[in-house]
Design a protein that fits this description.
The protein is mostly helical. The chain is built from two helices and no strands. Helix 1 (about 5-90) runs antiparallel to helix 2 (about 100-110). The N and C termini lie far apart (about 150 Å).
């Protein structure tokens, strides 16, 4: 072979190697692209899984919260029912009969106690309801409540709304009515020695025996 032939052969070989090199680069790029696609797909699947897991966890938490709220509501309803039942069962009977705890529970739950009947046994001298030391929060609604003959000695009823309540023949010794609404209440024969009536509203309160 002549020198020119060798030169041509070398040129052809170089061209072939160049083509092979370009092909290898293209193959490498294609493989890298496929690897990236696989990684991206895996990342998307991972994010989807994590999102689904978080959503499932959130739904579980919300369900648990609803169940807890329903349980609390059920307990409150049961407590309120038992408290009202205790008051009803004790009506017309002497002693406490669970009325103190019942009233405090209901008032603590902001129940409306307007018109509640807390009378005891009028047939005996000391047959009134025993409510000594009763403690109700300010704002408790007891409009028109009937405490006739009850012993409320030492009761803490500051700020309680007792408008038009019947406190006839009650024992209110050392009772705290500071700031209470006692407008139009009946106080006939009520024993109020030591009762705290500071800032109490007493307009039209009736303490005089009638008839």
């Amino acid at each position: 072979m002549s020198l020119q032939d060798w030169a041509n052969l070398a040129q052809i070989a170089g061209a072939a190697l160049a083509v092979l090199g370009v092909g290898k680069v293209a193959w490498d790029v294609n493989q890298a692209r496929k690897a990236a696609e696989i990684q991206n797909k895996a990342a998307v699947e991972q994010r989807t899984y994590q999102t689904g897991a978080m959503e499932a966890q959130q739904r579980t938490l919300e369900a648990q919260q609803r169940a807890a709220e329903e349980q609390r509501d059920s307990q409150h309803r049961a407590m309120a029912y038992q408290a009202w039942q205790a008051i009803s069962d004790a009506q017309g009977k002497p002693g406490s009969g669970g009325r103190i705890d019942a009233l405090q529970d209901l008032a603590g739950d902001r129940a409306n106690l307007n018109g509640v009947n807390l009378t005891g046994d009028d047939s005996s001298k000391d047959g009134g309801a025993y409510l000594a030391g009763l403690h109700l929060p300010p704002g408790t609604l007891l409009r028109g409540a009937d405490f006739h003959g009850a012993d409320l000695s030492g009761a803490r009823l500051a700020g309680v709304i007792l408008r038009s309540a019947n406190l006839r023949r009650t024992k209110l010794l050392e009772a705290d009515f500071h700031g209470a609404d006692l407008g139009d209440v009946i106080l006939v024969r009520a024993h109020m020695v030591g009762a705290d009536l500071r800032n109490a509203y007493l307009q039209q309160a009736n303490s005089r025996k009638q008839g």
